[in-house]
Each structure stands twice: as structure tokens, then as C-alpha cells.
């Protein structure tokens, strides 16, 4: 949509006298009266109040040069990002107090100090996103998010906010984000086919809706933002899968929805992004990728367990009734996410429908042909089993070299796992990305062929030979040989058969043929549980309490061994896991390797 068309819409759809009505159509007071009639909303408000009380006991975080320079010195991100995100969390919880308990003035001075401090910052960008860029006028994810947060908080608190703070917020958002967006771009994310375009464009567009009174000026921002959001949606295939995983679905799609809602209201319904093609399919993605409870099928750089924003699910369910509503018991403590983001936090309670109790994740089997993911959840008699496998290629967003990888889960325990996202550093997103175990095929349940690992690149892709889902059985057969250009392979067909009658079980068959001389073959499986060698061709992965998986194999053909390995987790800590390797004793020019995975009752 071009600028003139948007301008005409805006001119015919005047902004409300009070822009806070974009978030609270009937006013914040009316929302509080309705919402606080429900015990769950009152409990959520009290949980956020507890967070705010903790922040009143802490000093404002400081962002000194010694922390800022660490990324340039050694590539580490966490030393600077920890206080940076703590300050954003402080902003969110204190501003939430102003919305939830406006009669309580105890938090306001602390909020004013936080707002002033953020306006003081050298840059709103993270050092990792600044290499070779102007720190005051570059717009990255967090500069854009900060602009959105400040603009919305300014709008909601303007009635009592000191004028000097209010005018400074307006000036800083314009100087650091809105003016550069209009006059200094384009920025690299503007045509990205992943979460950056949605978060950045959605945040900038939202800030502009709140702060720009001039319809023609606002139309200029919206024209650019809508073009970026077209790119974001174009990054999804028709199956709606977020190849970056649930965490980035919640992030990117969340900001897409936040902006879309504001834009629809600001244009009196004339521009409704949520009615666009593919949005419904994208909205349904989470109900397939949750295994049980909060555990996710976490292919790519995403965490194995997620906090669920029930407000976002309730909003989407109101638009698309076939979007599943997670069970209310899956809600964690109401607090900002680890980055302290304002936009999802406020909507997490404002969009919450306490009348929607939700349900546990039910049974389903789905094949996503574009992403080449098979996801299958079997639920019976209060128990849940989940199997996931993927083909795809090794040039995906937040890529891991993981063609043919799979996950096996039961009742909250993930026996065959994906390590998920590691600690983000300069090297993690640089030339050494696949030296990290979690990104390399060595950190996934895939073969090692003649010592060779899978290679990265979109040309390294699976060929789907069969993909079928049914009431009793799901089957996926992939030729994954293209992922191993350094191995003398003519063919490697990996076939999964997931039987779902009674207690499910999985059969994995790898049929291979060499194009040259046979080389060493190792079948690797990644698990959080120490393997127990039970004899008689069985290795047990035990979660304790009688829960486990038995892996059966041909002991005459393969010899198992296990090693304990370390993984630098996303939060900077160290996680231990186990690589269970089955070495083929005497590889031939072609052969067949079979494993049976049975759940221990």
C-alpha cells in the first residue's frame, strides 16, 4: 500500500482524542473494573506488584563503558545485556503498576527515574548490532522495542507525567528511531524474511501511531512498515511453520500482531493485517509444536521450555476460533520476559480472557510439507507422547545442521532432545557458528559418516520420499545424503515409523549405500539422561520413577558407547548432555541399521 493511499485512509479516520483508547477502547478505568472482578486477573496483578517491590529495593542498573566495550574485545554479549535488560524489566514492571494500581504513587518516582535514565543512554541498540554503525541513529531490535515501549507508556501516563520527561521521551524516540527510519535507511532488516522485520517495523510503526499527529508524516512511516511486514509474512511458507521455533514465533509474530491491532484501530478497521493470507496458518503453529505442558519441539535456536503468553493466544483465538487455547494452568508467574519487554507484558493481561479455561494439548499428527516437519502428539488416559522429525535444509533462519534429526518425548520428559539455542556471542553468529556443538550436526541425533558431519547451506537439503500421517501410524522417509558432501555416499535413507496404538513406539531405519569404499559409521543420539547399558541389545534412558525409553539394536552389528558433553546454554550457564553413539563394527558397501525405541511403562 503506497503512502497516498494510507494518507487518504488516515485523513478519513481521525485519531482518538486520547490515544490510550487504542489499547483500552473503553478506557483503562473501565478495563480495570471488569478485569479485577476476576480472581485470576487480580492474582496476575499481585504477581507483577511483587516484581515491582523487588525493583524498589535495587538501584538503577548502570551501563558503563567497561561493559559496552566487551563485545568488541572478546565477543561476549551477556555482561552488557544483563543490566540493559534489567533496566527494561524495571521500566515494564513500574509502568505496569501505573496501569494496574494508578492510585498507588509509591512506584511513580522510580518509574520517572527509569524513563529519564533510558533517555540518557548512549544508545538504545545492543553492542552486538552496532559494528560500523552510528550508535545514536541505527535502529536495531531493541532500539525499536524501546521506542514502542516509551511511546506507549508516555501515552498511558501522560496525565500525570512531568512535562519535562514527556517532552524528552517524545524527542528521543523521534531522534533515535522515527527520524532515522524515515531519513537514514534503509536498514538491513527492512526486507528480512524473519523475526527482525516484524519486531523492528512493528515497533517503529506502533511508536509512530502513538506520537505522530501529522497524517502525512505517519503515512510515510506506515508505508515503509507495511512493506517490511509483507517481507515478514513472505518468510513463511503456506504451512505457517516458524522455522526459527516457537520462541521466535512468539517474538516476531507477537510484534506483528501488536502492531496490526493498533493499526486496525487507528484506521477504524480499514487496514487489517490479520486478515491477510497465511496469518491464520501462522497463528496455528504453536498448537502443533508444544509436546506437553510448556515443553516445545525446539528445532533451531529456541528453548526447550517456553513461557506461554495466554493473552496472545486469547487474542488470536478470538480472531481464529480453531487456534487452540492452552490450559490456564500452563501460565507461569506474571512477569516480563527475560528481556523485560513492555509490549507483550501489558497485552498479556489486557488481552487475557479469564473466562477461557483452555485445555491440555490434545492428540494430533501433522506433516508440514514446506518446512518438512512431522509433528505427532498422542494423548490417551491422561498421558502424552510426542514425536518430531525434520528434513528441510541447512540454510534455514537460525540454522542448525540437523537434517534427519528427531525428538522423542513422553509426559514431560524429553528422551531424545534438541539442545536448542546456545549462548549468543560474536562467534555464534559468525564464521565459527558450526564449531558450537548445538549448531553442528554433532549435537543432533543424526549419523556421523567417515568422521564427516553435515555441512551448512540451503543446497544441503533432504529429499522427501514418503510422508504420511494416520490414526495409528505416521511415516517419514528422507534421503539425507545431500547433507554429507564430504562422505562417499550414494544414498542414505532415514525412515521413521511412529506407531500410536496403546503406548506408542518408534522404529528408525537407516538404509545406506556408499559410492566408494566403505568408511566408519556412527549413529549418534542426543539425550539428557545417562545411558544405561542393559545388555541383550538394549540401552535404557531412564528419567527416574520408572519412566524411561529402551533403545533396541543389533548388538552383533553395532557397539554402543556414551560420552558426557558440555553445552554453553543461552543464559550463559553450562548444561551437560550425553551423546550415545552406536559404532558399526564392519561397515559394508551398503547396509541397513535399525533401532526400536520403546517407552518403559
From TrEMBL:
Where would you find the membrane-spanning parts of this chain?
A: none
What's this protein's name?
Heparinase II/III-like protein
Which InterPro entries does the annotation name?
Chondroitin_lyas
Which SUPFAM superfamilies does the entry link to?
Answer: Chondroitin AC/alginate lyase
Q: Which organism does this record belong to?
A: Thermobacillus xylanilyticus
The lineage's top-level taxon is Bacteria
Gene from which the chain derives: txxe 758
Amino acid at each position: 500500500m503506497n503512502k497516498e493511499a494510507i494518507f487518504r485512509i488516515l485523513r478519513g479516520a481521525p485519531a482518538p482524542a486520547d490515544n490510550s483508547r487504542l489499547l483500552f477502547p473503553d478506557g483503562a478505568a473501565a478495563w480495570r473494573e471488569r478485569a479485577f472482578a476476576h480472581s485470576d486477573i487480580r492474582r496476575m496483578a499481585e504477581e507483577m506488584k511483587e516484581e515491582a517491590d523487588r525493583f524498589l529495593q535495587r538501584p538503577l542498573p548502570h551501563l558503563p563503558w567497561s561493559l559496552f566495550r566487551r563485545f568488541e574485545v572478546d565477543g561476549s554479549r551477556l555482561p552488557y545485556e544483563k543490566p540493559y535488560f534489567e533496566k527494561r524489566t524495571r521500566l515494564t514492571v513500574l509502568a505496569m503498576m501505573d496501569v494496574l494500581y494508578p492510585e498507588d504513587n509509591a512506584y511513580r518516582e522510580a518509574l520517572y527515574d527509569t524513563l529519564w535514565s533510558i533517555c540518557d543512554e548512549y544508545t538504545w541498540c545492543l553492542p552486538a548490532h552496532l559494528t560500523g554503525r552510528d550508535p545514536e541513529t541505527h535502529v536495531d531490535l531493541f532500539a525499536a522495542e524501546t521506542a514502542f515501549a516509551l511511546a506507549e507508556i508516555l501515552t498511558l501516563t501522560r496525565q500525570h507525567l512531568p512535562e519535562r520527561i514527556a517532552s524528552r521521551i517524545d524527542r528521543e524516540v523521534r531522534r533515535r528511531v522515527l527520524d532515522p527510519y524515515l531519513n537514514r535507511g534503509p536498514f538491513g532488516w527492512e526486507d528480512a524474511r524473519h523475526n527482525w522485520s516484524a519486531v523492528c517495523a512493528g515497533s517503529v510503526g506502533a511508536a509512530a501511531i502513538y506520537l505522530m499527529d501529522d497524517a502525512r508524516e505517519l503515512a510515510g512511516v506506515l508505508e515503509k512498515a507495511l512493506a517490511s511486514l509483507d517481507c515478514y509474512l513472505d518468510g513463511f511458507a503456506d504451512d505457517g511453520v516458524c522455522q526459527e521455533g516457537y520462541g521466535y514465533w512468539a517474538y516476531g509474530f507477537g510484534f506483528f500482531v501488536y502492531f496490526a491491532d493498533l493499526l486496525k484501530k487507528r484506521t477504524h478497521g480499514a487496514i487489517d493485517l490479520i486478515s491477510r493470507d497465511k496469518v491464520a496458518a501462522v497463528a496455528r503453529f504453536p498448537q502443533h509444536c508444544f509436546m506437553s505442558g510448556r515443553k516445545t519441539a525446539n528445532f533451531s535456536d529456541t528453548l526447550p521450555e517456553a513461557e506461554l503468553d495466554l493473552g496472545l493466544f486469547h487474542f488470536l483465538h478470538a480472531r481464529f476460533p480453531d487456534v487452540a487455547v492452552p490450559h490456564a494452568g500452563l501460565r507461569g508467574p506474571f512477569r516480563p520476559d527475560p528481556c523485560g519487554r513492555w509490549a507483550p507484558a501489558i497485552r498479556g493481561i489486557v488481552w487475557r480472557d479469564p473466562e477461557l479455561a483452555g485445555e491440555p494439548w490434545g492428540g494430533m499428527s501433522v506433516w508440514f510439507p514446506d518446512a518438512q516437519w512431522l509433528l505427532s502428539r498422542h494423548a490417551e488416559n491422561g498421558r502424552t507422547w510426542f514425536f518430531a522429525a525434520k528434513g528441510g535444509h541447512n540454510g534455514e533462519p537460525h540454522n542448525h545442521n540437523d537434517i534427519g534429526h528427531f525428538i522423542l518425548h513422553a509426559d514431560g520428559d524429553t528422551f531424545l532432545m534438541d539442545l536448542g539455542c546456545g549462548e549468543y556471542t560474536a562467534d555464534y553468529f559468525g564464521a565459527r557458528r558450526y564449531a558450537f556443538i548445538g549448531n553442528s550436526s554433532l549435537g543432533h541425533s543424526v549419523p556421523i559418516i567417515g568422521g564427516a558431519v553435515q555441512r551448512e547451506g540451503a543446497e544441503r537439503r533432504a529429499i522427501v520420499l514418503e510422508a504420511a500421517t494416520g490414526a495409528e501410524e505416521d511415516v517419514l522417509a528422507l534421503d539425507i545424503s545431500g547433507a554429507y558432501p564430504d562422505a562417499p555416499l550414494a544414498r542414505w535413507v532415514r525412515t521413521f515409523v511412529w506407531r500410536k496404538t496403546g503406548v506408542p513406539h518408534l522404529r528408525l531405519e537407516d538404509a545406506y549405500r556408499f559410492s566408494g569404499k566403505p568408511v566408519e559409521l556412527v549413529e549418534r543420539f542426543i539425550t539428557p539422561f545417562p545411558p544405561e547399558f542393559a545388555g541383550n541389545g538394549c540401552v535404557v534412558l531412564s528419567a527416574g520413577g520408572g519412566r524411561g525409553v529402551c533403545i533396541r539394536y543389533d548388538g552383533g552389528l553395532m557397539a554402543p558407547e556414551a560420552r558426557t558433553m558440555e553445552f554453553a546454554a543461552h543464559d550463559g550457564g553450562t548444561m551437560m548432555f550425553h551423546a550415545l553413539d552406536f559404532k558399526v563394527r564392519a561397515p559394508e558397501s551398503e547396509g541397513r541399521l535399525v533401532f526400536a525405541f520403546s517407552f518403559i511403562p
